Amino acid sequence: DSIETEKDEL
Amino acid sequence: MNLFRLCGDLSHVVSIVLLLLKIRATRSCVGISLKTQFLYLVVFVTRYLDLFVTFISLYNSVMKVAFISTTAYILYLMFFKFKHTYDKDHDTFRIQFLIAFAAALAFVTPHRYSLLEVLWTFSLWLESVAILPQLYMLQTTGECENLTSHYIFALGLYRALYAVNWVYRYSTEPGYWQPVTWIAGILQTALYGDFFYYYVASRRRGKRLKLPT
């Protein structure tokens, strides 16, 4: 699984 | 949270407030694309489904609920209350193409294949092009009320500020990586290019926004 940041943006 | 991101969110909120002000003050939705508003509702509903599974912050949840409910309210005003003022004959952009575009990319570019991820990716691509019916309507009518032009400007500014926020986060947060968000966001901001130019020119002359035909 590639790393992707938590979806904390709107 | 950084200042660019916060200003981006606030600009997004301001855009919606301006649109509501315009509709309520003039008691009319002339010049506003129902199709664009409908697409935004689809964007918010498909993206913010994570409200039920992940909690990020109170700010985050409140904003999500606010975006969904205010857009639904705008659609209600346009569809029921001020329906007689809706300029249907100029709102002729074919949104089927935009939905097909977003759906196709949602199946090719998700981070991982799960329902929420695919819908989230769909919402990003759909948001990137959702302004097109509104810009097209503006192009065919040639000019619009001040509040409407401020609305479109604030909406474009929101994504432009988000782009600055991405550059900032990429350079300060190790591992911050959101390629689909970035590409869709830059596409979205780019669509406003022409509009920004004519908006600033009209502000300088102190006149209403008027597009060349």
UniProtKB/TrEMBL annotation, chain B:
<dbReference type="GO" id="GO:0006621">
    <property type="term" value="P:protein retention in ER lumen"/>
</dbReference>
<feature type="transmembrane region" description="Helical">
    <location>
        <begin position="119"/>
        <end position="138"/>
    </location>
</feature>
<keyword id="KW-0675">Receptor</keyword>
<feature type="transmembrane region" description="Helical">
    <location>
        <begin position="180"/>
        <end position="200"/>
    </location>
</feature>
<dbReference type="GO" id="GO:0015031">
    <property type="term" value="P:protein transport"/>
</dbReference>
<feature type="transmembrane region" description="Helical">
    <location>
        <begin position="65"/>
        <end position="82"/>
    </location>
</feature>
<dbReference type="GO" id="GO:0046923">
    <property type="term" value="F:ER retention sequence binding"/>
</dbReference>
<dbReference type="GO" id="GO:0016192">
    <property type="term" value="P:vesicle-mediated transport"/>
</dbReference>
<keyword id="KW-0813">Transport</keyword>
<keyword id="KW-0653">Protein transport</keyword>
<keyword id="KW-0256">Endoplasmic reticulum</keyword>
<feature type="transmembrane region" description="Helical">
    <location>
        <begin position="94"/>
        <end position="113"/>
    </location>
</feature>
<keyword id="KW-0812">Transmembrane</keyword>
<keyword id="KW-0931">ER-Golgi transport</keyword>
<comment type="similarity">
    <text>Belongs to the ERD2 family.</text>
</comment>
<dbReference type="Pfam" id="PF00810">
    <property type="entry name" value="ER_lumen_recept"/>
</dbReference>
<dbReference type="InterPro" id="IPR000133">
    <property type="entry name" value="ER_ret_rcpt"/>
</dbReference>
<protein>
    <recommendedName>
        <fullName>ER lumen protein-retaining receptor</fullName>
    </recommendedName>
</protein>
<keyword id="KW-1133">Transmembrane helix</keyword>
<dbReference type="GO" id="GO:0005789">
    <property type="term" value="C:endoplasmic reticulum membrane"/>
</dbReference>
<keyword id="KW-0472">Membrane</keyword>
